[in-house]
Amino acid sequence: MEFKSIIYEKAEGIAKITFNKPEKLNAADVTFLQELKAALEDAEKDENVKVVVITGSGRAFSAGMDLSMFKEGVSAYEFSKIMELGHQVTRFIETMSKPVIAAVNGYALGGGCEISLACDITIAADTASFGQPEINLAFYPSWGGTQRLTRLIGYKKAKELILLGDRISAEEAYRLGIVNAVVPADKLMEKAMEYAKKLASKSPVALKVAKRLVNSALETDLEAGLRMEVMQSALFPATEDFNEGLKAFFEKRQPSFKGK
Ligand code: COA
User: Fold this and answer.
1) How many domains is the chain built from?
2) Is 87 inside any structural domain?
């Protein structure tokens, strides 16, 4: 697939997706979402890819849904299809087997904020800002924001952000738990790549299962989640990676994992 709205690069086990419509603050239209989905699916399939990093070019990570799609009006059917696509992308990020890092370089608003919420780790430039401004358009966050933000920061703060629609700084986002780390803007990619390289050195099997189990903590009751933890553990003694991890520990060397 040829990409127009994103840049997709792969090197040293890391797939990097850069939103690339800076003149529109990386606002996401259907083409943008389809390309993002295709890149993520490729990263998931490619055995050489261990980690995905998503960032934006210019002043924004993404200013959200491209509102020009609705300038001339939109049918209920078309509108709900776009929401469905936004959901497919954010859910894919959240449930794919490989870790996804958002490197938020600027505005992460509306759908842009929701994409970062779906990522496993979010690193933000100190100049970045976050927000769900949809209420100002007489709408609401509809790519998972009402659900993910509430689970992440609790319903009082989620309601404040969603009902008031104000933007918050990267520091405030960090304090709320939306962001894992805030760094000077010129160090953003360095920091994101540091995280990515660290993740790429771990066992892909363990990362996949650990990610799935943490996700399930938000989606199942405690008893079911705990059962799943025990059941998944039975797979590990048969994996090469787990045996390599133990062997490396006793041989006092760094392990080399193969994802098997
Ligand atoms: N959809 C479509 N175009 C968008 C956009 C969006 N979500 N966000 C920004 N743009 C476009 C602007 O229309 C402008 O295009 P133009 O130069 O052709 O007029 C360009 O990107 C630059 O944005 P501009 O508003 O001039 O920059 P700014 O620095 O003054 O303001 C924002 C930045 C992010 C505060 C402002 O663009 C904004 O509020 N965007 C909408 C955010 C939003 O509501 N997102 C949720 C959508 S559901």
Assistant:
1) 2
2) yes
Alpha-carbon distance 199 to 236, whole Å?
19
Distance 132 CA to ligand 1 centre (A): 13
For the residues of 12-66, what is the DSSP string, one character each? TTEEEEEE--GGGTT-B-HHHHHHHHHHHHHHHH-TT--EEEEEESTTEEE-SB-
Choice from 20, 24, 70, 142 to test ligand 1 binding pocket (greatest atom count within 8 A of CB):
24
pLDDT 10s digits, 87-121: 999 999 999 999 999 999 999 999 999 999 999 99
Same domain, 227 and 157: no
Tokens 């759908």 sit on residue: 111
- Residue closest by Cα to atom 19 of ligand 1: 24
Closest by alpha carbon to 60, among 101, 21, 86? Answer: 21
The closest alpha carbon to 58, from 5, 15, 100, belongs to: 5
Residues 103 and 186 in one domain: yes
Give the pLDDT of residue 221. 96
Helices (H), 177-221: 188-200, 204-219
